[in-house]
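Feature request, filed as a ticket because there's no other form

It would be nice if the structure record came with a short human-readable summary line next to the tokens. Right now we just get the raw output. Example of a typical job, pasted below so the devs can see what we mean:
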Amino acid sequence: MPTRTDELPSVMRRMAAGQMLAQGASIPEVVEALRMSADTVRRYKAILEKGGLEALKQVSVGGRTAALDEHALRWLAAALQGSAREHGFPTDAWTNARVREVIATRFGMKYSRVHTWQIVTNLGLSHRLSKSTR
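Raw output as currently delivered:
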């Protein structure tokens, strides 16, 4: 299941730094242009020299490892494509609270509203969520 890490501002800045370094920009030039620390740019340069832009792209964005595996994310994406009624809710609409409830029931994971929104967004399905709180 694709995620949208490439669109994160931190990843976009990292890749911009990599592009600049690959095109011959100096560390001070990248620091100035992108307002990054010199240590960070030096680290990016070392990664770039060892493995190119693809290696730089693979650098972790941080955070803990996702608790929902690929199978669970596929199941959730399929569920969100359908009606919330199919999962015991009184209407068709998916809300953040309903997604949290389905995840808790099906996978035993409890997520915050913000983390749930991020999961649904990473699945490319944020448009499926109603603004309702329930």
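Something like this underneath would help us a lot:
Residues 70-128 form one domain.
The chain has two domains: 7-57, 70-128.
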